[in-house]
Specification:
Blueprint (H helix, E strand, L loop, with lengths): L9 H7 L7 E4 L6 H7 L6 E6 L2 H10 L6 E5 L5 H6 L6 E7 L4 H5 L24 H7 L2 H11 L5 H14 L5 H10 L3 H4 L6 H12 L1 H15 E11 L2 H15 L19 E3 L9 H6 L7 E7 L1
Parallel strand pairs: 1-2, 1-4, 2-3, 4-5
Antiparallel strand pairs: 5-7, 6-7
Helix pairs in contact: 1-2, 7-8, 7-11, 8-9, 12-13
Length: 307
């Protein structure tokens, strides 16, 4: 199966890793291998470990890099990268790249249930295993559904949307993407329907909940930083404010030095920075990339280096 995905901020992300030809690198969200392929071009005796939880991605990566001796492919979640690498005898790496969020392949394959533009089973599982979006929509208490839409989707009309969901599911289970999209559309003000598709935020929220994306990101960042050797770099591409906030705060924490109150004459905490920012502000796509790939519009790349 072809896993189609246009890599976002390709050159910037790969440059951010400052690749050494004999180094060990991790592409924690390899997808179709766009970033992985570019990293491999810079290696001679080094290794690239490409990780993905999606079986479709693993099939594509295995076929694409089957003749590349520098490539190691692992099926798994990047949140578990420490264990995945340790089990293969890898304790330190020179760089980690994380391209967070849903892939073009997942969005553009209707039967995966990520899109509100095509009718398909309401699925949204990146790993193709575990709880589906349909199960959440049909079984969660109204209060929990409201929380998911409000927090993960920043949806202002979460209350009315959930009221519509609860009413609909009392009559029959909500099973498809277009069923849910229509319920959402019917339960937001008319003006909202003219400002992009009204289901966008709710679908994002359910996708995040189904895949525990923010929890996975927290664990994945900690694991990546743990694996980095001195001078190793972590490059992270995010696509919405919730993800970017987590990455920004985590990197700021690693870069923080003394935490003593400012009126202390000397430091007593002994805390020293564990990392430094490579760029102070996130790198975004330029106009050329945006014209070729509109999905890069919200992408932000942040980079830090372990001290």
């Amino acid at each position: 199966m072809e896993f189609s995905h246009i890599p976002v901020l390709l050159e910037q992300a790969v440059d951010a890793l400052a690749i050494k030809e004999n180094g060990i690198y991790v592409d924690g969200t390899a997808g179709g291998g766009g970033h992985s392929s570019e990293i491999l071009k810079h290696l001679t005796t080094g290794k690239l470990i490409s990780i993905d939880q999606d079986p479709d991605a693993i099939l594509t990566l295995t076929e694409r890099f089957k003749k590349n001796e520098n490539s190691i492919i692992i099926k798994g979640n990047f949140a578990d990268m420490v264990g995945l690498l340790h089990s293969r005898g890898v304790g330190r790496v020179d760089g980690v790249l994380l391209d967070i969020g849903v892939s073009s392949h997942q969005l553009d394959t209707p039967e995966r249930g990520f899109s509100f533009h095509e009718d398909a089973p309401l699925d949204m599982r990146m790993s193709q295993s575990g709880t589906t979006a349909a199960e959440l929509v049909n079984t969660l208490p109204a209060g929990e559904l409201r929380r998911i839409l409000s927090v993960y989707g920043e949806e202002k009309f979460a209350g009315s949307i959930v009221n519509g969901i609860v009413k609909a599911r009392a009559e029959k289970p909500i099973e498809t993407t277009l069923e849910l999209a229509e319920i959402i559309k019917e339960n937001v003000p008319q003006r909202v329907r003219r400002d992009g598709h009204p289901a966008r935020r709710s679908f994002q929220a359910l996708r995040i909940a189904v895949n525990d994306e923010l929890g996975v990101l927290e664990r994945g960042l900690d694991g990546a930083f743990e694996l980095l050797g001195s001078g190793g770099r972590l490059a992270v591409i995010t696509f919405h404010s919730l993800e970017d906030r987590i990455v920004k705060q985590k990197m700021a924490l690693w870069c923080q030095g003394c935490t003593c109150p400012k009126d202390f004459p000397v430091c007593v905490c002994g805390n020293k920075p564990k990392a430094k920012l490579v760029v102070k502000k996130p790198i975004c796509a330029n106009e050329t990339e945006l014209s070729d790939n509109p999905r890069a519009r919200s992408a932000k790349l942040r980079i830090c280096e372990k001290i």
